[in-house]
Write a structure and sequence with these properties.
7-stranded antiparallel beta sheet; 7 helices; globular; 3-stranded antiparallel beta sheet; alpha+beta
């Protein structure tokens, strides 16, 4: 059984190997993904993420346990990557016209994920104004939450694919296909995946659409280097999709399949050169 819905700015496909109660489980998995979008989406000014960006530097903000979990993972990957992964780059994407402008940043000394402090498990505050964009990690987390729902409802084997952020569980094994960086309409089969996750980052269609790079280097000193013009495609295999999603940015920025933070999260890197 396979169902597909538009969510997270892409198409999400959920499959189950069981027919009995499979449809209800899949619908509940879609509901979990919708909840992640409602909590952590940047495009709507009333999401919890938007509230954090507007208020967290002035007052404590109570957050949903899922939002807290994503922020904790983001801080963990930020630390392990030496700052290469940082969700505090939303203003860069806003300035480039890749994200909507909900608030005006009068303070140019914007902080990053490292400035978010936990006052309690569900209460955060920021040391500086921030413009967080969780787009580089929340999609993977949404996939993981959908898988958790499926398993909790008795589905023993299946998959969730959110625009290339893929997690497979149980007896299911799926072929892994990655777009050719030179010819994005051509797929390269690199193996199969069972009981794990994969995510890929690239600039496949940025040149075609004449868009500025959406891969941001948070450590860049020069403005011309902020939008990283990377070549190739960058995939991470991990046990959970939230880590695979986040770590693709580290691989894209370093071009190094052996960066120490990959082993820190039991992840494997795969780079396909253009």
């Amino acid at each position: 059984m396979i169902r597909c819905k538009p969510l997270l700015g892409t198409f999400v496909e959920i499959s189950s190997q069981e027919d009995q109660n499979g449809l209800l489980a899949i619908e509940n998995a879609f509901a979990a993904i919708q909840q992640v979008q409602d909590l952590m989406g940047f495009h709507h000014p009333d999401t919890q993420l938007s509230v954090i960006n507007q208020l967290a530097h002035r007052e404590a903000v109570e957050v949903h346990p899922w939002t807290a979990q994503v922020i904790k993972v983001a801080k963990e990957v930020h630390l392990a990557s030496g700052g290469l992964f940082n969700c505090g780059i939303g203003h860069r994407l806003v300035a480039a016209g890749l994200l909507p402008r909900h608030i005006t940043f009068t303070n140019h000394d914007l902080g990053g994920i490292e400035d978010i402090q936990f006052l309690a498990p569900d209460l955060i505050k920021s040391a500086r104004p921030v413009c967080l964009d969780l787009g580089g990690i929340a999609k993977g987390f949404a996939v993981d939450m959908a898988v958790r729902v499926l398993i909790s409802e008795g589905i023993t084997s299946g998959s969730v694919n959110a625009g290339g952020d893929l997690r497979v569980f149980g007896k299911t094994a799926l072929p892994i296909q990655v777009r050719d960086p030179e010819l994005p309409n051509r797929l390269i089969e690199i193996g199969s995946l069972k009981d794990g996750a994969i995510a890929t980052s690239s600039l496949y269609f940025a040149k075609r659409d004449q868009q500025i790079s959406h891969i941001i280097n948070p450590l860049a000193q020069n403005f011309s280097e902020v939008h990283a013009e990377v070549l190739g495609s960058f995939s991470i295999l991990a046990k959970e999709c939230v880590y695979a999603d986040a770590l693709t940015k580290v691989l894209a920025l370093t071009n190094n399949e052996y960066h120490p933070c990959f082993s820190r999260f039991s992840a494997q890197a795969l780079r396909i050169t253009a």
